[in-house]
Design brief:
Blueprint: H1 14-20, E1 28-30, E2 33-41, E3 48-53, E4 59-61, E5 72-74, E6 80-86, E7 93-99, E8 106-107, E9 116-122, E10 128-135, E11 139-146, E12 152-157, E13 161-166, E14 173-177, E15 187-191, E16 197-201, E17 213-218, E18 226-231, E19 238-243, E20 249-251, E21 259-264, E22 270-277, E23 280-287, E24 293-296, E25 302-308, E26 314-319, E27 326-329, E28 334-336, E29 350-356, E30 359-366, E31 375-381, H2 395-402, E32 406-411, H3 420-424, H4 432-447, E33 451-461, H5 463-474, E34 481-485, H6 491-497, H7 500-510, H8 518-524, E35 537-542, H9 550-562, E36 567-572, H10 581-599
Parallel strand pairs: 31-32, 31-33, 33-34, 34-35, 35-36
Antiparallel strand pairs: 1-2, 2-3, 3-4, 5-6, 6-7, 7-8, 9-10, 10-11, 11-12, 13-14, 14-15, 15-16, 17-18, 18-19, 19-20, 21-22, 22-23, 23-24, 25-26, 26-27, 27-28, 29-30, 30-32
């Protein structure tokens, strides 16, 4: 038995149990074989794909890789599991497949060279697929592949693009693209299998602000040319139905205040609507004929994914900050309950609304039960940057709470879920804008009596790690400790070393390349302010990370070393984070020990 799957013991702390307790994702099911499902679990101590035959109840671990596997999909007929095989977590690789019932893996598309993935859609005929690829040399290419035949290229462009979906009968391919040069806002194109264009929809043109579109899926009905898409025309994400054959757009105009996503019910008569508002989520059913919106009862918290089954029931993955995630069904009961140790609960979040330089800022607060301030406080900044923290279960923040810290998570400008203007505010003064909001919440936390101003930890992963290094440099007197996980540390070097899709996002955020807007890259780079850093700094990094590459982190660390600054660096053999439970526990333990060493125990 591996260390990461070891049984529960009386001396195991709750924070470690939360990482080790078996988890499962929302099961994906095959369109034409709904009794066959695919899900992700950490039951062995590493996140891997599992095949589940609902008819027999049998569950089988489908992938076995040292660094884990989470990117997989079932073919519509349920015959094959496709999964993406990258090298050491660097996200560069090929699609492989294996029979649902088990058997050897094989290259899914032998004629395609390794690349970064740019979407995948599988046809119902069992032999056709649309595969998106991205490389630094070619940009994005999309290929129609048929078993036994060489792949055919149907799309190519230097800018970022991706496969959105394939119609039910395989005659239409939806593509999201950024040919206009704005990587934050995609336009849509629908192609025939020969690559010719059927229809286009582009909200980036003709307005004062560029707007984005996203593909949510073709109607799952034979001969149906309706495409469900997301748009931002009223300042937030909402769905509409676009008939790509006639050009007709059906605006649903749902009377919901937050961002709205949707997917089709299997018969195409209704939509399953996911509504996210102020860090919480809920579900609705929208009848396309009657326009009736009916709430689907779910507990207060966050719905992290939902799917409508052929019998009309809805399965959804739910959690709250206090309660671990569980897959439930509106038909009653828990859909998947993995065996093994049970995950301990944590404490609920409290909401704080703080006036900031760009508007009201939403922060989520957790603190030890019964504790009174001022407390040592961790500001845990989310990644993305276009993401948001929510009232959902997270083992990392809960570990800090167990060690006596308050945890503050800030949905700074650039975060999703608060309207397009809030998300799009993040341009040109990248990093500095978010930190203005963090500073406003920091001042509130101190003034309210929650936070001890002399024991403040700034931390985060990915974009949050970037903001951590930028924060300890631009706000050197504000933070007692900085803990940056897989961060951007030297923005210029990171730009040159990262994958092409991220280069495009950086050009959008900063308004150009390092040669075109050097002053913006300099102002937004943590390396610019490294000599101002006063706080002890901890950095962890994956040596194969294509998103926040190791060379730019090494550049930052050398500057810390040159001035004798207090710091600690942990490098591990993976990419942008680890899917191995033991490794994740090790990292959290090192982070907490670093804070305790420099702050004293909470």
């Amino acid at each position: 038995m591996s260390e990461s799957s070891k049984p529960d013991t009386p001396d195991m702390p709750d924070w470690e149990r939360r990482f080790r307790a078996p988890r499962v994702s929302l099961p994906d099911w095959a369109v034409d074989a709904p009794e066959r499902s695919l899900f992700v679990s950490n039951a062995t101590g590493t996140y891997e794909l599992y095949a589940w035959d609902r008819a027999t109840g049998e569950q089988r671990q489908a992938t076995h890789r040292p660094n884990g596997t989470t990117d997989g999909v079932l073919s519509p007929d349920g015959a094959w599991i496709w999964w993406f095989d990258d090298k050491d977590g660097d996200e560069f690789g090929i699609w492989r497949r294996q029979p649902f019932a088990g058997g050897p893996d094989e290259p899914a598309v032998p004629g395609l060279e390794p690349s970064y993935p740019a979407g995948l859609a599988l046809a119902r005929d069992g032999r056709t697929a649309v595969v998106g690829r991205s490389t630094d040399e070619d940009g994005t290419t999309i290929h129609l592949t048929r078993e036994g035949e060489p792949p055919v290229e149907v799309y190519r462009h230097r800018e970022s693009a991706g496969v959105g979906d394939l119609s039910y009968d395989g005659s239409l391919i939806a593509v999201e693209h950024t040919e206009h040069g704005d990587a934050m806002h995609a336009a849509l194109r629908v192609l025939r299998p020969d690559g010719t264009t059927v229809a286009e929809l582009d909200d980036t043109k003709g307005g004062e602000q560029e707007l984005g579109l996203e593909v949510m899926g073709f109607a799952p009905v034979a001969g149906d040319t309706r495409l469900l898409i997301g748009h931002q025309r009223r300042g937030r994400w909402e769905p509409l139905v676009w008939n790509v054959a006639t050009g007709e757009e059906t605006d649903l105009a749902l009377d919901l205040p937050g961002d709205v996503g949707a997917e089709w019910y299997p018969d195409g008569s209704a939509l399953l609507v996911e509504h996210g508002f102020e860090a919480r989520g809920e579900l609705f059913r929208y009848d396309l004929a009657t326009h009736e919106l009916t709430r689907i009862p779910t507990p207060s918290g966050t719905v992290s994914g939902a799917t409508a089954r052929p019998d009309g029931s809805v399965e959804y993955l739910w959690s709250s900050a206090a309660h671990p995630p569980v897959v439930r069904s509106t038909a009653g009961g828990i859909v998947l309950d993995p065996p093994g140790m049970k995950c301990p609960p944590s404490v609920a979040v409290e909401d704080a609304w703080v006036e900031g330089p760009g508007g009201r800022i939403h922060a989520l607060i957790q603190k030890p039960a019964g504790a009174t301030g001022p407390l040592p406080t961790v500001f845990d900044l989310h990644g993305g940057p276009t993401w948001h923290d929510s009232d959902s279960f997270a083992a990392g923040p809960a570990a800090w709470v167990d060690h006596g810290y308050a945890v503050v998570r800030v949905n700074y400008r650039g975060s999703t879920g608060y309207g397009r203007a809030w998300t799009d505010a993040l341009k040109h003064r990248v990093g500095l804008i978010e930190l203005e909001d963090v500073a406003a919440v920091r001042e509130w936390a101190i003034a309210s009596g929650l936070a001890d101003p002399d024991r403040l930890v700034l931390t985060g992963g990915s974009w949050g790690g970037y903001l951590t290094l930028l924060g300890v440099g631009t706000q050197p007197d504000a933070w007692a400790v900085g803990i940056a996980v897989v961060p951007v540390a030297d923005y210029v070097t990171a730009y040159y070393d990262e994958m092409e899709s991220l280069k495009a996002m950086d050009r959008t955020l900063l308004g150009g390349t390092p040669e075109e807007v050097p002053e913006r890259f300099e102002a937004s780079s943590p390396l610019t302010y490294v000599d101002r850093v006063k706080a002890p700094v901890y950095i962890s990094a994956g040596v194969n990370d294509p998103r926040c590459p190791i060379r730019q982190i090494d550049n930052y660390v050398k500057r810390l070393e040159a001035r004798g600054a207090v710091h600690q660096v942990y490098r591990y053999d993976a990419g942008h984070g680890s899917l191995v439970v033991d490794e994740r526990i090790k990292q959290v333990r090192l982070e907490i020990e670093f804070a305790q060493r420099h702050l004293g125990r909470a």
